[in-house]
Write a structure and sequence with these properties.
RGS, Regulator of G-protein Signalling 4, domain 2, 0% strand, 67% helix, mainly alpha
């Protein structure tokens, strides 16, 4: 059950992509500018995560962001049974020697399935921090120079400068300035 949820929520490319529910133009227009300020801001925005995943997939390192997201979700897990199930899924998907999307982290070889018996919300924190730093100091800077990021930024700017956006801005200005 958890694996189905995990796959659906984190691995399915249709999820968290913002395409089926267009966000308000105000939020979208600030997207790339906000993403460029920090990896944290990028990871807080579903559209940013989608674009970053797209980029990492091309670099054959999408598992890094998927692991980081899985750890974030794991921290919110309530109940020992659910926590054990999710911990095992994270271990089997990202950390075990047979993992389908193995991440490369220090101390990984010392991890064993025995830690999964007594899970706690921060049990993957050190490994998650390693992956975050790897993304922050390696992939993130390349992402900001990538065609994926630059094209998205360009389309935001074009949208911002469109006659519809300017008309809406003028209407909003009249409403708030009266």
């Amino acid at each position: 059950l958890f694996f189905s949820f995990f796959f659906f929520f984190f691995l399915s490319p249709e999820i968290n992509d913002g395409e089926s529910h267009p966000s308000s133009s105000h939020q979208t227009l600030k997207g790339t500018s906000k993403w460029a300020t920090s990896l944290e801001n990028l990871l807080e925005d579903p559209e940013g995560v989608k674009r970053f995943r797209e980029f990492l997939k091309k670099e054959f390192s999408e598992e890094n962001v998927l692991f980081w997201l899985a750890c974030e979700e794991f921290k919110k897990t309530q109940g020992k049974k659910q926590m054990q199930e999710k911990a095992k899924e994270i271990y089997m998907t990202f950390l075990s020697s047979k993992a389908s999307s193995q991440v490369n982290v220090e101390g990984q070889s010392r991890l064993s399935e025995t830690i999964l018996e007594t899970p706690h919300p921060l049990m993957f924190q050190k490994l998650q921090d390693q992956i975050f730093n790897l993304m922050k100091y390696d992939s993130y800077s390349r992402f900001l120079k990538s065609d994926i990021f630059l094209n998205h930024k360009k389309s935001e700017e074009q949208e911002e400068n469109s006659p519809e956006a300017q008309t809406a801005a003028k209407r909003a200005s009249r409403i708030y300035n009266t």
